[in-house]
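Hi again,

Forgot to attach this to my earlier email, sorry! This is the prediction with NAP bound. I've pasted everything inline since the attachment limit keeps bouncing my files.
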Amino acid sequence: MLERIDSIDGPGKVLIINNAGFGNYGAFAARPMELHLGMIGLNVLAPVELVARLMPCLLERGGAVINVASIAAHQPIPTLAVYAASKAFLLHWSLALGDELRPVGVSVLAVCPGPTRTGFSKRAGFDRRADSELFDQSADQVVQETWRALNRGKTMVVTGFFNKMIAAIAMRLPKTWSSRLAGQSVSRSRPAPP
Ligand SMILES: NC(=O)c1ccc[n+]([C@@H]2O[C@H](COP(=O)([O-])OP(=O)(O)OC[C@H]3O[C@@H](n4cnc5c(N)ncnc54)[C@H](OP(=O)(O)O)[C@@H]3O)[C@@H](O)[C@H]2O)c1
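Structure tokens for the complex follow:
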């Protein structure tokens, strides 16, 4: 039976996990506007609205928010332009919100997975080469690293060793360079976008 969270009496912290999201591979100009806006709606507006609506419960009970961003949050990515920008929003918003809410007993964790074996790639229109999938993580691995990070009070976790290295490099490069490099790297591991 579904119950409204604000109608449940008694103690108990709140955990909000903003996981739903999708990407789409291809040139911005070749994609319909509705697709771009839908992606921003799900990846950006929905998490902000959910957290804002549940804020009274969060403040009353304490708890945590987990926002599933992406390694794509660390650099602009041609052919994934809206997706990468939406995840950059989620990452920056999470970090700032976490600093605001820490004093009142609410933690916020931004999770930045890299390629993970789920339905995401197919839906995004990637036709990745098998050899480029060798280092993909499983969803279980991402979940385990997420719980560890939450329990240690971290505010951001990049999951997987190779993803950590890529994010560390991307974060140190000028944005103009990392955009070019990301575009080249995506085009090497995936077919030319339609
Ligand atoms: N897999 C990766 O390589 C990867 C890498 C980095 C970050 N991420 C992020 O990880 C998160 C989870 O993705 P995933 O890998 O598990 O991909 P997935 O298998 O495609 O699952 C996507 C999830 O989002 C939900 N969803 C998609 N469109 C929706 C919509 N319009 N309204 C409501 N729910 C919607 C889906 O619900 P239904 O099943 O009901 O459609 C599903 O639960 C996403 O935020 C994604 O950006 C994934």
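DSSP finds six helices and four strands in the chain. The chain has one domain: 14-189.

That should be everything now.

G.
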